[in-house]
Amino acid sequence: MNDRFQELKLFVRAAESGSFSATAREMGLSQPSVSRIVSELEARLGVRLLLRTTRKIVPTEAGNDYLRKAKQLLLDLDELDEVARGAGSLKGTLRVAVSETLCIRTIIPNLQRFLHDHPQLKLEFLTADVMHDLVAEGVDMAIRFGPLPDSGFGRKKLATLRRLLMASPAYVEKHGAPKTPAELTQHDCIFGPTGVPTQPWEFMRDAEKISVKIDPRYSFTSAEALIACAREGLGIARASALMCKTELESGQLLSLLPDFKLAPVEINAVFPAGRMPSQKVRSFTEFLSGTLADPDE
């Protein structure tokens, strides 16, 4: 690896992660080697880029300026290589943070056709129903549900997902099905996952907007657990039709209150780096847009 290129990569990862040790593990080097290379970079530039403490390293003001330019330069170099190879010959590793449920139920079943078009590309998924720190974990892109906070990150809307109320046939047989949204207060309801607004549940019927505040009996941080809870007859869940497609088609879950439309949920791709996502990110984003499209919308 070119020394200047290695310097930049190590500095960027150290500044983003706040740890020489984490950078060393990621780059396959020793911690002293990473510290030495960054120190040599600072000596060559004649300026302190990182402040070292016993707990963490943080960029100085000059370090933040250098970090911003270094990240863009690395991104431009990757882009230059990808332009030369062509979009059909993507290489390297794409690191994606995504909900485990979305990954297992929707992305993986469709992944083969994307990999077929890009046989030299490696994919690394961080699968958990939590908000990953994209910068600290070196993530190229994240897939997130619901409204996004204002930030310096780039974003692209992938789809608007229909949401349904659903319960198992066993639950409906035992407790009956609600005839109006207001009757949900008399039922066992399931909340989750975190990151998607839970209160109140909002419905539309014709031009009328109906809001119902629910007191949940069960709450989960995992969408997979929420679906399992509903499937086992423990209550009524609100979830996207896409996530529960298998259960709905098999009859394990039934759609409730079909005349009352739930507010949909947006799903977005979020990009932490630079002013323009790399070709790898753009290609995978395009693939996701097609995969997540709702044919009933």
CA-based shape: elongated
Distance between the termini: 49 Å
The oligomerization state is single chain
| Strand content range | 15-25%
Task: Give a count of the beta strands, DSSP E runs of length 2 or more.
Answer: 15
Segments where pLDDT lies below 50 for 5+ residues? none
Tally of domains: 3
Account of the 3D structure:
- The protein folds into three domains: 3-84, Arc Repressor Mutant, subunit A, CATH 1.10.10.10; 86-142 and 273-292, D-Maltodextrin-Binding Protein, domain 2 (3-Layer(aba) Sandwich); 163-263, D-Maltodextrin-Binding Protein, domain 2.
- α1 crosses α3 (31-45), α1 packs across α4 (61-85) and α5 (100-117) packs across α9 (279-292).
- The chain is α/β, with parallel strands linked by helices and 297 residues long.
- The chain has helices at 3-17, 20-27, 31-45, 61-85, 100-117, 169-175, 223-231, 245-250, 279-292; strands at 50-52, 57-59, 92-98, 121-127, 141-145, 154-161, 163-167, 189-191, 201-205, 208-212, 218-219, 236-240, 254-256, 261-262, 265-271.
- The protein has nine helices and 15 strands.
- The model has no long low-confidence stretch (mean pLDDT 85).
